[in-house]
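Please decode residue identities from the backbone states below.
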């Protein structure tokens, strides 16, 4: 069973502007790899997707 979701804050995993403005979200990736490497991501800007880390 997956652990509690990481705190994405205002970071949007599918928005290139967030990567340009803030860089890669290493803390989020680290959490996902350790706790939920096949993460179901629900996003208001797109259809839900699996984030494979």
């Amino acid at each position: 069973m997956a652990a509690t979701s990481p705190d994405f804050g205002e970071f949007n995993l599918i928005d290139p502007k967030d990567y340009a403005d803030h860089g890669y979200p290493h803390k989020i990736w680290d959490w996902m790899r350790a706790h939920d490497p096949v993460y179901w991501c629900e996003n208001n800007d797109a259809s839900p997707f699996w984030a494979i880390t």
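Observation: Helices lie at 16-22, 26-35.
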